[in-house]
Batch of 2 targets.
Target 1
Amino acid sequence: MSQFIADQHLPPVGPSSPALPRRQVLAGAGLLAAAGAALAFKPRTVLRTLGTAKLDALVPHDFAGWHFQAASGLVLPPADQLRDRIYSELLTRVYQHPDGGMMMLLIAYAGSQDGTIQVHRPEVCYPAGGFRLTDIEDRDVKLAPGVEVPTRFIVAETELRTEQMIYWTRLGHLFPRKWSDQKLAVIEENLRGLIPDGVLVRISTINAGDARASLDHFAAALFGAVGPRMKSVLIGPA
């Protein structure tokens, strides 16, 4: 008898079963649409402009009157696990010119394939090294006819040293100037179906006087001296 009573409370099955509530149907359709959209926009192409090459082999030691002097003496991000994880290639060089000018070059490349590229910007690593940032200015620097990159000009000071620099960051095809824009740049590239690579290029000097023009000239000379692969590392694929 108890089995019979329990069976009376079961919903009918088969062709006579009532239709699903409209709300459940719409919710299910929404979930299916979201899953389809996620699959459609899932990044499928890994962008790695450096490939299997090495920065040291692609950047000349001598060009346009500039000569390699050393690979040390630059302000670097803290040597923590984050830096080691996000950078697959890190190039540091000091160049000297016969006229007495000196330029310091840092190129940090991240060939990350997880779409969460981060970079240590000078606004972070210089204060961590005891510098005060006394000037920050957004500037577009012309590397070649028709080629400009959005950079930041920064003056960093301690009691013993004043360093002027320009730097830019590239994530895929985009050049986010601010830390807050980096994640948006990654998302934008993901929506294009790309997992972007990234690079930070920093050119700095301790020469006296306003160094904006000399920094720009060095950047343009460097761009003119490298080959097509390194150009794509610096400014992204065509």
Target 2
Amino acid sequence: MYNFTKKMLATIFLLLAISSLFAQIAETQKELTVAISANNLNLNPHTSSYSIEAQLLTALYEGLFTYNPISLKPEKGLVSSYKISRDKKTWTFTMRDDIYFSDGTPITAQTIKESWLSLLSLGADAPYASLLDCIKGAADYRKGLGTADGVKISVNENKLTVRLTTPMTYLDRLLCHHAFSAVSENENVYSGAYVLDSVTETEIHMTKNTLFYGADHVYIPSIKVLISDGPKENTYLFNTGDVNWIADDFNGEGIYNQESIYDSVLFGTQYLFFSLHGGPLENPLVRNALLSAVPWDDIRTIFNIPADTLVFPITDYPSIPGIGDTDLELSKELLEEAGYPDGGFSVSFQITQSDLLDFLANELKKAWEPLNVQLNIQKVDSFSYYNMDYSESDIFLYSWIGDFSDPITFLELFKSDSNLNVSNWKNDNFDKLIEEANTFTDSVKRYEKLAEAEQLLLDDGILLPLCHLITQNCIDLTEIGGWFPNALDMHPFKYMYFREQVPTLSNWDL
């Protein structure tokens, strides 16, 4: 009895200490100012696709799961618990009690169902909608071939049940993405830790959502996002103390406090790809002929982490032969076999003002001249470049950061019916390999099958891998807590707080 009472008292004192700490943290908080260089931001979670938009959306929307800021493992968001059937094809989610949108409307299991159906109803306008094709009936509804009633999402009081076409061992990781958040039918209503106050060409302002289920542990009262003119201005604003975090470009050498710069290797890959819309590039022999002529060793020397494959290496994922051999004679043989022995065609490459794009365009131009293949380089302004239709050019540069730690987040980009497939490349065998992979619940076997799919993709010559990505952030972590470097460069705002005059407990920082 004595030991039990002693332990209980110790627990009570610990809880009181933590409660006191939380109170002191709340008293010392102020507005967080973030600098970005992006423009034309899309803050609709259903149609947004850029990484900087995803960062901002972590403040405004919440789904069933959310990213752990360190490990990126899924943590429970709007769910209190969930169950998975033995065959991994039925998931049942139990919602938290008493959760609300920022206007006071309850968030229920029906809310999630309606949010997902709304996403699917957008069809090709919603980049991530096809990731819900794992739900029975979802693909047909997304493509206009079925009805909402045919999508196997059911609601029973506070429980949401989804029935899948194949086992999905990674569904909880997938559902961390902002596209699958609780979204209100009404404008300017939010499910996340913050609400949007105003948006101008130069500034976005958000304030704490007092109705958020975790509001007691969200400490920063407001967030100001400055949309700057670029690296030079971002650097100046940080050095003068007007910005707490640069989440975009800056001049690293110009930062006074070099310890505030954090480099992270991203779960991502940068690559060039061919956009297929008729002509010689439709032939894989032509594409491989062009790839074989590229001086890969010379090009990749400029990158910190050169890559010859698409999928970022992860544990248990097989290593496969990548694209890296330069063989001009093979290129000529492939062109002859394809019916273009003398070349005689052109390839277009639209670029914006960028040293990297200039370098790549010039290297490709030189590489293909001996094949009598002309590269037409067309420079456009930044707005036109980032809003370009993918049928307007033959080659594009892409930087892709995975949305969750699984190879499928890369391979989804090339599935025939994926909304993320901007190359217009379609291959039935590739699709079947991915379908087969998803029948395995054993991750090693599943990865082996996905690696087969990636090998087919590389062998068909649709993409030119360049490097794996590194990102830089500038933030003073002696001033701000709850922010951690990670492989997705994703930093949910709800965890952040100012350390100013705050006592610490050894287990406070996540």
